[in-house]
Each structure stands twice: as C-alpha cells, then as structure tokens.
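Entry 14. Two folds queued back to back today. First construct below, sequence then structure tokens.
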Amino acid sequence: MTPGRRYLLGVAAVGAGGAGLVLAVDQALRPALAGGMVIGLLLQAPLGWWAVRSMGTEGFMPIWGLGMLVRFTVVGVMGLAVLPALGWPPGPVLGGMVGVLVALLLVEGVTAMGQHSREDER
C-alpha cells in the first residue's frame, strides 16, 4: 500500500471514529465537539499530507516543523481569542480539535513506519 493511500485510510478511520464519538456523547456537547473535530480534520489533513509527501526528502524536517508550528498556533488562537469571542464552550471544541490532531499525528507516524519498514520486501 502506498504511503498516500495509507494516510488517507487513516484520515478516514479517524473521521469515522470521531463521528462515532460525537454520537456517543451528550446531545448538548455534540455541536461543539463536532465543530472542534471538523476544524482539526481541516487543519491536520492537508498538513499531514504535505508531511507524508515529503518523507524521505531533505525538506521533511522543515515541513514537519512548520506544520507543528501551525498546529500549535491555531490551537492557541482558537483557545485564547476565537472561542471566547464566539462564546463557544472551550472544553469540547479544543478537546475535539486536539484529539483529532493527535490521532492524525499518530497516523502520520504509522504511515512513516510503513514507508520505511521492510514490510514490502517480505
């Protein structure tokens, strides 16, 4: 399986797991949790794709570092400025957002391991 396909499969799995989690929580928390998860997916999916595409190149570390900086900045701006301005509950929104970011960072790691392991040589 190609790294791109492995990453897209992981994104789909995280999205499906997130949807299941949204359905499992109290109905009052669902919109905020779902909103945070969607923001996380919209942020992380392209950044992760960019990182996966750069694996094995000299540009990987700067790309990965820039991606991490963007992720931290967006979480900080959301928590300190956007959510208070909109009056959204920070706990479910940030929890959903950070949960998705972490899950998709794990997908990046699994993708990298698959790309650099010897699984295709067996």
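Second construct, same run, same settings:
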Amino acid sequence: MGDFQRLQQRMLLATIAVAALSVPFAAYAFGWPVALSLLIGAFAGLLYLWLLSRSVARLGEASRSLSKVQLLVPVVLVLACARLPQLQLFPALVGFLLYKPALLVQAALDH
C-alpha cells in the first residue's frame, strides 16, 4: 500500500502545483474574479481527487464498491456558482478539472 500512498501524494501535490501556476496567470490575464473562481474550483477538484483516492484505498479492505460521496463535490460547486454572484461557473469548472493535467503528468512520469 506504500506505493499507492506515494502516488496519491504525488497526484495531490501535482494538482496543487498546477493550480498554483494557473491562478496567478488567470489573475493577470483575466482579472481577480476569474482567478477566485478558478481557485475555488481547484480546491473542489483537490477535494474530489482526495475523496476518490480515499475511496479507492478502501476498496480491498472493507468494501467492494466505490463510494459516491465524491460526486457531490461538483454538484455543490455548481450550486455555489448559481447562488453566489461573485463566482463564475466556467472558471470554477476549469479549476475543478485542473486535477486532470496532474494525472496526465503522473502517468507520463510513471512510464
């Protein structure tokens, strides 16, 4: 299980690194409201990735199926964007998906 935990840590750190590069760029190129939405979306993506990896880690121990709790994260993100006028939906969703490039980088580094 040590290899999985190391992979999990690398994915989370890579996601944080991608977000740390993207948010200042968005602030410079598009302004602070877009950067704030991107940052909140990135936090939601990080939470989603963490919940998913926690669910995968439990797969062999106590359960035989994945938990569906992580699916609430994008729903809550969209609802928050609908309720809070400061948040913009498209940058928040892009921020949420920032974990994808981190996964691709980790897959490329592993091979």
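Quick look at the second one. The chain has five helices and no strands. Residues 2-110 form one domain.
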